[in-house]
Amino acid sequence: MGNGMNGKVVLITGATSGIGKATAIGLAKMGAKIVFTYRDRKKGEETRKEIIDETKNSDIHSIYCDLASFYSIGKCCDEFIENYGRLDVLINNAGLWNMNERKSSDGTEETFAVNFLAPFLMTELLLDTLKKSGPSRIINVSSALHKGKINFDDIEMKNEYNGMKAYAQSKLAVILFTRLLAKNLEKDGITVNCLHPGVIATNIIRDRGKAIRFLSRLLFKSPKNGARTSIYLASAPEIENTTGEYFSNKKIVKSSDESKDMETAKKLWKLAEEHIKINDKN
Asked: Which of 137, 123, 131 is closest to 89 using CA atoms?
């Protein structure tokens, strides 16, 4: 253990499996205090014990959070601030890919809600804590599949749902959010970066069928390999001043032209704020 993460508090969403869990293990081995979110209490507790056993780091904690609920995200952030009061690294890792249309508990298309609105809200609610703990880091997991454009006329695809397009749009939104947030926080001692983890064998796709059979032929990298860039962005001293970038394989790589359009990013930011206000009944 050790290696520069001792005393650092890291919050990771969606760490009971896949890349998130591998990221938690990697950073726990470096001595970080890990707090991760879970939806299933039993799985959360099993994961916590597993990480402790594997890393010999007992400073591993978990918080309930349903990322498809703004109310639950709010409660989770309140609980985090109350119990920990410090945050050095926020890793917005959780994500899903629905082949069939589903709604979040707030009535929003679920892929957009979980992959984009959830990290947007969680980051906003934890921003003061991140500022007080600075220098701190925000890491958003995106994807190389972030192609296309943001469809502002029908962002939830109510007219014609397409799982692939919904996923691609949500991951494009993550990069746009990352770039604008990085600009906004330039003077606050917080860096914001995003990444493509690689094509990983995870539980991301909820609906089985032809798509999963097709994708399984592509799924070569293990979650451990997929977590390498997240771990690097959370811990590497050489990138402590790098912000607003898109990484793959621990290197800055090019993202789509659309993902660099700051006017689109501002429009999307406004839409996200309106969405959360409209749907947050508490």
From this structure: 137
Q: Which of 278, 15, 268, 16 is nearest to 146 (CA)?
A: 268
Q: What is the pLDDT of residue 143?
A: 82
Low-confidence ranges of the chain (pLDDT < 70): 1-3, 198-224, 279-282
pTM to 2 decimal places: 0.91
Q: Answer yes or no: are the C-beta atoms of 146 and 171 closer than 8 Å.
A: yes
- Look up 232 and say whether it is catalytic: no
CA-CA distance, 116 to 4, in Å (whole number)? 30
Question: Backbone phi, then psi, for 38, in 5-degree steps?
Answer: -140, 160
What integer pLDDT is reported at residue 282 of this predicted model? Answer: 44
Alpha carbon separation from 263 to 37, 138, 150, 260, 269 (Å, rounded): 33, 22, 12, 9, 10
SS3 154: coil
CATH superfamily ID and name for 9-279: NAD(P)-binding Rossmann-like Domain (3.40.50.720)
Candidate list 38, 64, 84, 167, residue with the active-site label: 167
- Give me 119's structure tokens: 């990290």
